[in-house]
Amino acid sequence: MLTRTLSDILISQARNQWYRCAEPGRLRAARKTWAPHERPLVSVLIPTLPERWDVLRTRALASLARQSYKNVQVIVIPDFPKKQHYPDEPKLHWLVGPSNALNRGLAEVKGDYIVRIDDDDILRPHMIEKMLEFIQSDDFEFVSAAAKGPDGIIKPYHHPLVGSVQTWMYRSYLKCFKYNLDSWRKSWDCNNEIDLYKRMHQAGVRMGYLPCVVCDIKPRPGLSEIGSKGFINEFSMYNTSTRRE
To answer: Rounded to two decimals, what is the model's pTM?
Structure first.
C-alpha cells in the first residue's frame, strides 16, 4: 500500500464526511425526477486519450455497434488530466482514473440509464439488452454483472456484490453522485470506482448483481496485463518514449 501524508488523510476524511451528510438527501430528491421512457435511452460513457483512438474504434465502439439494443447515446470524453487531479506516482494516478473526464461526461447524459466502459473494453452483443432487462426486473437502481479477463472470470467486489465497472448500468438520476477526485487520498488504496459504488450503497441505492458474463477485458496492444498493472506498465512506456523525444 502507498503512503499518504496527514494532509491527504484529513482531506479525504473531510470529503467523506461531506458525502455522508449530503448524498442521501440528493438521492431522495433525484428519485422524484425519475420518469423513464417506454423504450429507454441508454447513455454510454467512454473516457479516452487521443493516442488511444485506434483502440477505442476497434474495441469499445465496434462492440457498441454490434449491440442488439440500439437506442443508445455514446459519449466519448477526452481525458486531459489536470496536474492537481493526477498524482505523479503511477499507482495513485490509476486510483484517480479518468474521474475528471467522467464528471464532464455525466453532464452530457440524456438517457434513462448510464453505462460506463473503457476505450479498450469489448461488450458482448447482448450486454445492454440483458442489463436493461435485469435492472427493470425488480426495483433496482444500480446493477452489475460478471466480466471475463485474460485469466478467467473477474471476481466481483463484495459488500455489496458488485461487478467490474465495465458491467455497470444505473438509473441516470444517480449522476448526482460525482466521481471523487480525491479518492486516492484515502488511507487505503481505493480507486474511483470502488469509492463511487460504496458511496451509492451508503446513501441507500438499491443494487443487484447478475452472475452472467457481459464484457471481455483484454490487455491493451503492446501490454500483457490489465487493471493497475497494465496501467502502470503503459504509464512507464509512455514516459520513457516521451523522455526519448
So the answer is: 0.90
Q: Which runs of E-coded beta strand occur in 107-177?
A: 113-116, 121-123, 142-149, 152-153, 169-171
Domain regions of the chain by residue span: 6-244
State how far the Cα of 171 lies from the Cα of 31, in Å rounded to an integer: 9
* Domain 6-244 in this protein, CATH class: alpha beta
Give yes or no for a cis peptide into 98 (omega within 30° of 0).
no
Contacts of 118 (CB under 8 A, 6+ apart): 46, 47, 60, 165, 166
pLDDT in tens, 169-200: 999 999 999 999 888 888 777 889 999 999 99
Residue 38, CA atoms < 13 Å, CB-side half-sphere: 0
Task: Give the three cell numbers for residue 101.
Answer: 473526464
Q: How far apart are the first and last CA of the chain?
A: 33
